[in-house]
From TrEMBL, chain B:
Membrane-protein topology: Multi-pass membrane protein
Family membership noted in the UniProt record: Belongs to the ERD2 family.
Xref: PANTHER family: ER LUMEN PROTEIN RETAINING RECEPTOR
Localization: Endoplasmic reticulum membrane
The UniProt record lists the keyword Cell wall biogenesis/degradation: no
Name of the protein: ER lumen protein-retaining receptor
Residue ranges of the TM segments: 52-75, 95-115, 121-139, 151-170, 182-203
Molecular-function annotations in GO: ER retention sequence binding
Length: 10, 215
């Protein structure tokens, strides 16, 4: 996401 | 997804498998802190609520479900399995939950990216994961004989942390918008907690001795 806060890790 | 992250995840999975295998094969959970295991289960529940409303990849969802299921399976063995629960070091595993949960919850309420229920719970899970190993480390320090599987379990968890830090450094260098300072700071603290353990783990490994932590 643009704000770098996508929770794409585990 | 980069190689560091994949290695981190695999070490995490391996650590859980080693623990489950130890419990199932030896019918014993000696040396394992139930407090740490329950805190991990809580961490996963709070963090993976997004299973219900966001989808990243099949890999992510699969791993989330696996971590949740294995965490609850370990807790179930330690609490309810007739044989296994008798091997639990109840008197030694005295760390108080509230000392870890309360500060993490407070911090998550204050330091978060967005004040929404799921975001605060996610942040809480990040803070809590950083310190959830403490009851396990305290228990190991009290235990005279740490068996190899327990030592390896903690070492694998440490390796998982190490690789995640490499993953963040890599992402920081390669992705324009990768600025997750909450994750960074918590992650570094969490990994630092293992430093002391790793020092003695390496020492004993070099000397080919059983792991013993100094009192």
């Amino acid at each position: 996401a643009a704000d770098g806060q996508a929770h794409d890790e585990l | 997804m980069n190689l560091f992250r994949l290695c981190g995840d695999m070490f995490h999975l391996l650590s859980i498998m080693v623990l489950l295998l130890k419990i199932r094969a030896t019918r014993s959970c000696r040396g394992i802190s139930l407090k740490t295991q329950e805190l991990y289960a809580l961490v996963f529940v709070c963090r993976y609520l997004d299973l219900f409303y966001s989808f990243i990849s099949v890999y992510n969802s699969f791993m989330k479900v696996t971590f949740l299921a294995t965490a609850f399976s370990i807790v179930r063995y330690m609490r309810y399995d007739k044989v296994v629960k008798q091997t639990y070091d109840r008197e030694q595993d005295t760390f108080r939950y509230v000392f870890l949960i309360a500060p993490c919850l407070l911090l998550a309420l204050v330091l978060n990216h967005r004040f929404t229920l799921t975001e605060v719970l996610w942040t809480f899970s990040i803070y809590l994961e950083a310190v959830a190993i403490l009851p396990q480390l305290v228990l190991m320090q009290r235990t005279q004989n740490i068996d190899n599987l327990t030592a390896n379990y903690v070492a694998l968890l440490g390796a998982y942390r190490g690789f995640y830090i490499l993953n963040w450094i890599y992402r920081f260098a390669t992705e324009r918008h990768y600025r997750q300072w909450i994750v960074w700071i918590s992650g570094v603290i969490q990994t630092a907690l293992y430093a002391d353990f790793f020092f003695y783990y390496a020492l004993c490994w070099k000397a080919n001795k059983r792991l013993q932590l100094p009192a």
